[in-house]
From TrEMBL:
Protein name (database record): Uncharacterized protein DUF4158
Domain DUF4158: 2-106
Organism: Streptomyces brevispora
Composition skew (Basic and acidic residues), residue ranges: 250-270, 288-299
Chain intervals for the UniProt region annotation (Disordered): 250-299
InterPro entries: DUF4158
Length: 299
């Protein structure tokens, strides 16, 4: 664990195991009569495992590690794990888990607020108005324009391709989101966009103005990236469909032409066989026209 838990938090199974190992009588409680004995025993344990007790230094190291990682990571569990590793590497006894938990939540909120403020400040007042308008104006289907940012691409038809092109033009008209996200870690953008995507327009109105705009801006940025990926994917699928159809038609044309060329070739041997069957027989086998007339008494 890296730290000493409170005695009441020690599982009963552990208490029983220790009691049997040191051959203490049944019913012996895991308590100390004197605080001095507690400190002495803890000092022996620290010496045994090779750690030092310096809570102030441990907190300083943990805070520094969390603040550094919070720029790119957003999950409190990830921040706490980084802080634990750094304190252990320093050979210090770990503070309680609640200390890490409170520290991670506090620093994470401070760093996120700073990132949101930076995104907000890199946008113009007109862009602020345009993004906030997404929460109010309605689309053709009755939902807010904010929901249009979340819509996935449809099947690879020509009409869907044209609609996707118009959506890209609409998104680009909201502003250059790459400028807004300058210096922001990709994981932070993804997490902020995911938070905005999970909510709806009324939920986003409950955020502070700066954070509300920052979350919408991150969602717009991800939507601009996604629509380009969808366009490329849809274009490739359309081309693949056309190529497949063209190959099928080409094979049919080749088959018809091959059949036209093979037809006369197959008939030639039959004609030759017919000529061989009609060859004249031996001399005298057939009568000439003159012989027929002589038989009939002609000249």
């Amino acid at each position: 664990m890296g730290c000493f838990p409170a005695l009441e938090d020690v599982p009963e199974q552990v208490v029983e195991f220790v009691r049997r190992q040191v051959e203490l009588p049944e019913g012996m409680l895991p308590v100390y009569r004197a605080e001095r004995t507690v400190k002495h025993h803890r000092g022996l344990v620290r010496k045994r495992v090779g750690v030092a007790y310096d809570q102030a230094e441990a907190r300083r190291i943990a805070e520094q590690a969390i603040r550094k990682e919070a720029v790119a990571k957003n999950r409190p569990a990830d921040l706490i794990n980084i802080a634990l590793e750094k304190v252990v590497e320093a050979g210090l006894e770990l503070p309680g888990f609640s200390t890490f938990d409170k520290m991670a939540s506090k620093i994470r909120a401070e760093v996120n607020a700073s990132i949101c403020a930076g995104i907000h400040d890199r946008m113009s007042p007109l862009q602020h108005t345009e993004l906030l308008r997404l929460l109010e104006e309605r689309d053709n289907d009755g939902t807010t324009l904010f929901n249009r940012l979340k819509k996935p691409a449809k099947g690879p038809s020509w009409s869907h391709f044209k609609n996707l092109t118009r959506r890209m033009e609409w998104l680009d008209g909201l502003g250059d989101s790459a400028v807004w996200m300058d210096g922001v870690a990709a994981r932070k953008i993804t997490d902020f966009a995911g938070e905005a995507d999970a909510g709806d327009a009324p939920a986003l109105r409950d955020y502070t103005p700066v954070k509300r705009l920052a979350l919408i801006a991150c969602l717009v940025h991800k939507a601009r990236m996604r629509v380009r990926d969808d366009l490329a994917t849809m274009f490739c699928k359309r081309v693949a469909t056309k190529i497949k159809k063209a190959r099928t038609e080409l094979e049919e044309i080749r088959s018809r032409r091959a059949g036209d060329h093979r037809g006369p070739d197959r008939e030639l041997p039959r004609r030759a066989q017919g000529h061989r069957r009609r060859r004249p027989g031996p001399a005298g086998a057939r009568k000439g026209r003159g012989d027929d007339r002589r038989d009939q008494g002609g000249p």
